[in-house]
Structure formats: C-alpha cells, structure tokens
C-alpha cells in the first residue's frame, strides 16, 4: 500500500497545512520515513505560525533565520544527492531533476521568509510569508516531494546493492556445485563465506528497516534458512567430494543448494516487492484471522444494517468452518477436541441463522424490540465464535506441547547416528521410517499452530517451521544413509551431525514459538519477539542453540559497578524531585516514579542482587523502562500544548527522551551471542538507562515549575506565540552517538535531513 511521507505519526499535522509528498512515491522503509519527520515538522511549524497584527523584531528575525536555515540545509542535502547521482548513472537524470526542484523550493522559502529587514512586511511590495501564504505552502509541498524523491531514489541504490550481492553469492554457488577437488572447493568456499557475510550485513539492515511486519518476518525466515544452510552446504559438499559415487550424498547436497537458492530468491522478492511472473502472493487464511474479520462484520451491524449482505456473512462462516476441518480431520486431534469443535461449528451455523432472521426484520422495521433482539443475536454469535477460537487454540497448543515434550530426548536422531556408524543399513531404514513419522507429526503441528498464531508474523514463522521440518527430515535421512554406506567416514558423520543439530534447533525454536502464541492469546504480548537465530555481521554459526540467560560473574560486576552506582545516585535524585510535587497522582510523576523503580532494579542487578536474576531479565526490564519513558514523553507533549514560556524547550526535551528510549529499546532487543557480546550489551543497556535518568532529573523540575506557575495564575498556560527565539534549540543532541554512515548514500542523506531542524541553537 502506497503511503505518503506524511502518514507517520510524527508528520500527520502536515496534512492540515496542505503539505504532502508525491502520492506516487511509496515509502517502504523506516529510515526514509523517519528522515522526513524533522523536515515536515519544522516546515509545518513555519506555515502554521499564527498571524498577529503586531509582530516583534524577535519574531521576524526568527522567521528569517528559519528560512535561511532551510535553504542552507537543502543546499547541503542536494550536494549529497548530486554526488550520489554522479556515482549511479542509471539514476542520474531522475536524481538531478529532484535535486534541482529541492534547491529551487529551498530558495523560494528563503525569499518568502526574508522579513526581518522590513518594518511593515505586509504593506510592502515585497512578497513575503505574510502576504503570500499560498506560495509558502506550494514551495513547501515541492520541497517535501523532491526530498522524498531523492531519498527513495537513494533507497533504490540500497536495493541494487542487495541484488548485486545476491548475484555474487549465486555465481559462487554455481562454482561450488561443480568443483571436483578439495583444494578448489576450499578456495571457492572461502570466497563464498565472505560474500555471505556481506549479504548478511545488507539484508540484516534491510530487515530492521522494513515498515511491513509481515515482510520483516518473511525476511527473518529466509535469512535463518541461509544461515543454517551455510554449514550444511559445507559438510554436504565435502561428503559428496569424498564419496563422489554415492547417490544419497549427491541427493543430500542437491537439497541444500536448492533450498539456499529458494531463500535467496525470496529475499529479493521481499526487497523489490515483486513476485515471479507478476503473480500475487496468496497468503493462506487462518482460523484466527477469519474469526476476527467475521466478528468485525457482525458487530458492524450495530452501526449499519445495510453495509453487507447475508450471503457475505454466510460465505465468511463457511470458509472458517472449512478450515476447522484441518483439526477435525487430523489424526493427531484428540476425540474430545474433535467433538467440541464439531459441536461449536454446528452451533455457529444456528446462531448465524437466528442473527440473519432478526437482521432482515430490522431492515424492514426498526422497532425497539427488534433492535434489542438483534443485539442479543450479535452477542450470542460473537460468543460462539470466541468459544470456537478458544477450542481450536486449545487443540493446537496441547498437541504442540505434547509432541515437543515427547521428542525432547531426540532418541530417533541418536539411534540414526549410532546405527549409521555401525553401518547397519537395516536399522537405519527402520529409524528413518520413525523419523518420517515424527516429521509428519511436526508438520501437522505447525499447520494447526498457524491457524491460532494470532498475528501475521507468527503465522509466517509457523509456515517457515513447517517448511524446515519438511525439508530437513529427508536431508537427515539421506545423510544417515550415506554414513551407513561409509561408516568409517568422518566427514559423513560430521555431515549427519550438522543436519541433526538443525532439526534440534528448530524444535527448540518451536518451544519459544508456542510460548509466543500463548502470550498473544492471553493478551500478554501483541507482537512476537525475534527468536529465530539470525546471522549477525561477521558471524555464521550453523550450530544453532537456544540462547540461555546468564548471570554476570564477579569480574563483570566489578567492571560495571561504577556505572551501577551512578544509576543508583540518579534514582535518588529522581525520587527527591518527585517528592516535591504536590500532586502525587500527576501522570508525569507516576511515570517518573515507575522509571526510577525500574532503574533501581537494574542497579541492584549490577550488584548481583534484586529480582532481576539473569541478563535476559535485565534486557526485558530495559525494554519496559524504555516503553515507560515513551509514555512519559506523551505526557510531556500534552503539557506542552498548554504552556507558554517554555514550550519549545519542553518539546525539545520530550523529543530527546523519545530518541533515547528508542535507542535503549533497539539495544535491549539486539541479539548477543557469547559472554563478551552479552556483557557489552548489558553495559550498553545500563549506560543508556543512566542517560535517560539524567534527562529525567532535568525534566521533572522544569515540569513542576510550569505547573506551579499555572497554579499561581501568572498566565503560564496560554496559546503559544509563533516563535520564541530565545527558547528554541536545535533538535540534534550532541550526546547522541552518530549513526554509522554507509557509503551507498541513504545514511548520509538521512544525516543531512536530520539537521534540517532549522532553528538556531540556544
């Protein structure tokens, strides 16, 4: 779905001013969208300034400085855009046109805001912002449109880089597939490893940047496949080279290459937003999503009796009940669950018939009794659908829990390894049959879990898990057959180990997935955590294990003690500031006290004390702390709508708080493998929490002062004037770490637009 850059929450106010970027430009990434936020915000502030009969010199000077700053910032931005255009000839023409438009718009805004030298700008023949508001709006619209074009074009370069990297990987894979000597294989695989690391860098950044959560989940699944398959490709290829006449070894290797190519193709489909041969992606409908849509339609009858037909509702229910057959027809669904699902399906049909009957009567005659009957019918229908949803959820999750518990000992895999080393072909054949049965059970489990997953990202994860079991099962079998044929082969044994570890890893992922699905069902979590083992820059570990939460050892506690002590002191300062507030029920105080309490728990963690026992507990606490900080920022925005003297300063501090909380959330959610990386992450979380608490210590007295002024009746809470130059500061924060600047352009452009806050430093 195409969206304008003004569609995000940070820039929604621009629509009231008539601002908007080119509707034909689709923004698919957060970096482009967020880069536009400060530009739109500042231009909107300029256009929405309140006209007053008498304007102070400070107001006129502030407006002129804004216009000049816009022009200068656009000039710097355009210079970067033109440099990118010169390096990418296929985009040069489009980029050059957009840069020219942006420069022209910036100059126009500077001319229209050149008012400081005019005693009476509205009566002079000189055209200004006061005499030609429409001209400013047109220039602002052109500026937004052209800057957006430059950013989207720069984003195309990122896409091109990912495609180029994929092509390199594919070309090297073709060479690997054809090698006939170990020496040649080692040389080419070394090159392949470097290319995969580059591809992991690019696709990891892109995954984090995608706005669409569904695409993000698909990208995560594809990248997980590539990570696991990298080690499989190594051992499968070596086995095939060692045993070139072995058919099972060839089948095993071919399966890995095929799966990697499919995963690479899917990444490009996501990045370019395209499908092969132009076909549309047909996502399977789950029972959860079907019930949700059905209930929305039914409840919509309260507002409008005519917005859909009875046939429409009947068809929707039929589709849902057809999907319940996946449960009732399954050999793994218990008799009790099957009977309950059939009974509820029958009841749902009856409730819909009753609803349709009352609904049709109400369309002809809206009496009070009929409308009450309609309400009862709506409630009974929705209640029945809720019970059906609960029943299928119970059926799927209880099956999953039983299967995962039953297969946790990996007895079949252990037996395959033992019988393979013994060269016992008959026993291997027996256990491969058992593994095939286990695979069918797990595939069925994934299909049923998909119906009750509750969110699109979790649905996609279920589909990915199903595919993994479907593919890995036969690969384990071919690897086991190869080992049984060559029982003394170390490489064949290692190859079987790698495939078995991938199977075990997927089972471990399923336990986490089941927990997520239950969390969503019970309302504890609306979004899925990223628990797939994804490639990190410079690392490719195919031996995937679930990350285990760990505690800090004595040496690590000593290293972080100073930072912890600083956090402790800040919690004392915040507590002292909150105690000064007369209204302890104030929303700002409540959020401040909550954040202080959480920060104190994090301090205790650095001492090996308190309720936070593991690093995972700390990271989760940091996420909640950041969320509470974001809520506090919303309360500050609400206060700023009323205040007069310090509104710009308050808004600036609120934006700083939001930025710092976002950084903390990113850090807390980032993957960390190994002792050193985990400690580095702990240190970063504590440091960023300390920075937020430092800002909180400054915010609380400022807010308290403003509220006291208002209570004293000195007119503090009044509509804000258009500009207060002595209180406005730039939005850039010197303490904020600089983002890594990528050579391909989009980050450097982002840095320039971020500096378009256009307001002079205090």
Brief summary:
This protein has helices spanning 30-47, 57-87, 92-112, 133-178, 182-209, 213-242, 247-272, 287-300, 310-328, 335-364, 368-406, 411-422, 425-451, 456-485, 490-521, 554-579, 587-606, 615-640, 647-669, 675-711, 746-754. The protein is mainly α and 762 residues long. Helix 13 (425-451) runs antiparallel to helix 14, helix 17 (587-606) packs antiparallel against helix 20 (675-711) and helix 18 (615-640) runs antiparallel to helix 19.
Overview of the molecule:
The structure is a single chain. The protein has helices at 30-47, 57-87, 92-112, 133-178, 182-209, 213-242, 247-272, 287-300, 310-328, 335-364, 368-406, 411-422, 425-451, 456-485, 490-521, 554-579, 587-606, 615-640, 647-669, 675-711, 746-754. With 762 residues, the protein is mainly α. Among the domains are: 30-116 and 131-156, Up-down Bundle (Four Helix Bundle (Hemerythrin (Met), subunit A)); 163-272, Up-down Bundle (Four Helix Bundle (Hemerythrin (Met), subunit A)); 287-401, Nucleotidyltransferases  domain 2 (Four Helix Bundle (Hemerythrin (Met), subunit A), Up-down Bundle), CATH 1.20.120; 554-711, Up-down Bundle (Four Helix Bundle (Hemerythrin (Met), subunit A)). The two termini are 41 Å apart.
């Amino acid at each position: 779905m195409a969206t304008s850059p003004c569609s995000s929450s940070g820039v929604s106010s621009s629509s009231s001013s008539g601002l908007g970027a080119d509707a034909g430009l689709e923004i698919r990434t957060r970096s482009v969208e967020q880069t536009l936020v400060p530009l739109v915000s500042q231009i909107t502030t300029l256009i929405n300034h309140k006209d007053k009969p008498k304007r102070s010199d400070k107001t006129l000077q502030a407006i002129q400085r804004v216009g000049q700053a816009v022009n200068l910032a656009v000039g710097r931005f355009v210079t970067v855009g033109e440099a990118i255009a010169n390096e990418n000839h296929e985009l040069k023409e489009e980029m050059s046109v957009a840069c020219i438009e942006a420069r022209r718009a910036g100059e126009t805004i500077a001319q229209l805001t050149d008012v400081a030298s005019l005693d009476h700008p509205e009566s002079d023949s000189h055209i200004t912002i006061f005499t030609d508001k429409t001209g400013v709006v047109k220039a602002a619209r052109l500026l937004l449109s052209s800057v957006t074009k430059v950013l989207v074009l720069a984003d195309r370069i990122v896409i091109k880089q990912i495609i180029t990297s994929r092509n390199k990987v594919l070309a090297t894979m073709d060479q690997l597939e054809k090698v006939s000597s170990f020496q040649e294989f080692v040389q080419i695989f070394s090159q392949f490893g470097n290319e995969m690391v580059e591809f992991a860098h690019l696709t990891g950044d892109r995954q984090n940047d995608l706005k669409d959560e569904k695409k993000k989940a698909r990208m995560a699944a594809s990248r997980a496949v590539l990570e696991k398959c990298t080690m499989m490709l190594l051992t499968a290829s070596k086995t095939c080279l060692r045993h070139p006449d072995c058919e099972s070894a060839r089948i095993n290797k071919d399966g890995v290459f095929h799966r990697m190519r499919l995963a690479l193709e899917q990444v490009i489909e996501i990045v370019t937003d395209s499908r092969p041969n132009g076909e549309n992606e047909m996502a399977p409908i789950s029972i959860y999503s079907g019930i949700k849509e059905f209930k929305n339609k039914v409840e919509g009858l309260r507002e409008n009796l005519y917005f859909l037909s009875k046939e429409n509702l009947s068809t929707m229910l039929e589709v849902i009940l057809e999907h319940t057959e996946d449960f009732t027809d399954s050999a793994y669904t218990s008799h009790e669950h099957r009977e309950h699902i059939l009974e509820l399906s029958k009841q749902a049909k009856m409730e819909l018939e009753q609803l349709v009957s009352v609904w049709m009567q109400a369309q002809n005659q809206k009496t009070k009794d009929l409308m009450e009957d309609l309400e009862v019918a709506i409630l009974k229908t929705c209640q029945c659908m809720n019970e059906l949803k609960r029943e299928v959820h119970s059926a799927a999750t209880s099956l999953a829990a039983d299967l995962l518990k039953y297969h946790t000992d990996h007895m079949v895999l252990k037996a395959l390894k033992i019988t393979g080393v013994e060269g016992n072909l008959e026993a291997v054949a027996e256990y491969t049959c058992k593994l095939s049965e286990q695979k069918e059970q797990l595939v069925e489990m994934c299909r049923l879990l998909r119906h009750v997953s509750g969110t699109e990202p979790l649905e996609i994860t279920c589909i990915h898990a199903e595919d993994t079991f479907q593919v890995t099962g036969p690969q384990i079998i071919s690897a086991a057959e190869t080992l049984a044929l060559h029982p003394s082969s170390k490489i064949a044994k290692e190859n079987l180990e790698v495939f078995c570890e991938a199977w075990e890893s997927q089972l471990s992922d399923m336990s986490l997935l089941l927990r997520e699905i239950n969390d969503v069902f019970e309302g504890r979590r609306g979004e899925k955590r990223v628990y797939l083992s994804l490639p990190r820059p410079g690392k490719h570990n195919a031996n995937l294990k679930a990350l285990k939460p760990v505690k800090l050892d004595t040496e690590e506690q000593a290293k972080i003690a100073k930072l912890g002590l600083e956090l402790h002191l800040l919690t004392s300062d915040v507590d002292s500031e909150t105690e000064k507030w007369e209204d302890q029920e104030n929303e700002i105080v409540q959020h401040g006290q909550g954040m202080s309490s959480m920060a104190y728990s994090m301090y205790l963690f650095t001492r090996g004390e308190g309720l936070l026992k593991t690093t995972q507990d700390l990271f989760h606490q940091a996420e909640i702390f950041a969320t509470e900080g974001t809520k506090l920022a919303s309360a500050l925005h609400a206060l700023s709508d009323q205040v007069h003297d310090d509104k710009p300063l308050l808004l600036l501090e609120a934006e700083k708080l939001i930025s710092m909380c976002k950084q903390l959330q990113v850090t807390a959610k980032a993957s960390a493998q190994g002792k050193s990386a985990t400690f580095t992450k702990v240190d970063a979380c504590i440091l960023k929490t300390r920075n937020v608490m430092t800002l909180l210590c400054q915010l609380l007295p400022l807010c308290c002062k403003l509220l006291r002024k208002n209570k004293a009746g000195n007119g503090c809470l009044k509509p804000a004037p258009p500009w207060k130059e002595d209180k406005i500061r730039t939005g850039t924060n010197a303490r904020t770490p600089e983002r890594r600047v990528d050579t391909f352009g989009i980050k450097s452009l982002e840095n320039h637009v971020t500096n378009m806050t256009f307001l002079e430093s205090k």
